[in-house]
Amino acid sequence: MVYASNTSVSREGSIQEIERMLIRNGATKFSYGWDQGRAAVTFCLKGYYIRFLLTMPDQDAKEFCFTPTGRKRRSPSDARAAWEQACRARWRALALVIKAKLEAVQAGITIIEDEFLAHIVMPDGKTVGHSIIPAINEAYQTGLMPSRMLALPEPEFKGKGKS
After folding, report:
1. Residue 155 pLDDT > 60
2. 103 and 136 within one domain
3. Residues 65 and 108 in one domain
4. What is the per-residue pLDDT across 1-18, written as a single tens digit (0 to 9) for each?
5. In the chain, how many domains are there?
6. 155, part of any domain
7. What is the spatial distance between Cα 40 and Cα 52, in angstroms, rounded to a whole number?
8. Is the same domain home to 66 and 106?
9. Does 105 lie in the same domain as 27?
10. Strands 38-45 and 29-35
11. Mean pLDDT over the full length of the chain
12. 83 and 47 share a domain?
């Protein structure tokens, strides 16, 4: 069973909850938007821009067009209702993820930078996760550490012992 698969909380209710949590935790900016098939929530927390992308389910997917047994086609209104329910569940899951991360930071378990690292937006507009995941995958496939994980210049070493 998918988290919040039976939720009655609207998409707007989840977005408002996320915004309230972020404000309580010191966020200075908040926005959200959507296009076909995905939504984005972006906020500024402790000087970092953080973005979560939320892929929406395909409205024409079999899980919405057919009953759970897969034998009977749903009416267009029932298919739309099933799809909307799945979208609401995804928004609830995103609210849960953000809440858990903020709670972990508040409890002193972790810090904002660690908790939101993959979602921090870099100056080129890509998130850290988007930038670093290919290098991580390559390292696991080859067994070799990449010389640089991000496309940033190597820091200059100013300590003793470098020749």
Report:
1. no
2. no
3. yes
4. 688 888 999 999 999 999
5. 2
6. no
7. 6
8. yes
9. yes
10. antiparallel
11. 89
12. yes
Spell out the long-range contacts of 80-88 with Cβ–Cβ below 8 A and sequence spacing 24 or more: 83/57, 83/59, 85/5, 85/6, 85/7, 86/2, 86/5, 86/57, 87/11, 87/56, 87/57, 88/4, 88/7, 88/8, 88/9, 88/10, 88/11, 88/14
**Which pLDDT score, from 0 to 100, does residue 118 have?**
96
104 shares its domain with 145: no
Query: Do the domain assignments include residue 71?
Result: yes
Residue with tokens 């929530």: 41
Model pLDDT for residues 67-123, shown as the tens digit of each residue: 888 889 999 999 999 999 999 999 999 999 999 999 999 999 999 999 999 999 999
Please give the Cα distance from 101 to 125 (Å, whole number).
22
Secondary structure of 73-130 as H, E, C letters: ECCHHHHHHHHHHHHHHHHHHHHHHHHHHHHHHHCCCCCHHHHCHHHEECCCCCEHHH
- Tokens of residue 139, six digits: 């390292």
Instruction: Check if the beta carbon of residue 125 is closer than 8 Å to that of residue 49.
Output: no
- To the nearest 10 degrees (0 to 180), the angle between helices 76-106 and 11-24 is 10
17 shares a domain with 72: yes
What is the percent of the chain with per-residue pLDDT over 70, rounded to a whole number? 89
Q: 81 is in which domain, residue-wise?
A: 11-115
In a domain, 36, yes or no: yes
Between CA 22 and CA 112 the distance in angstroms is: 12
pLDDT at 39 over 80: yes
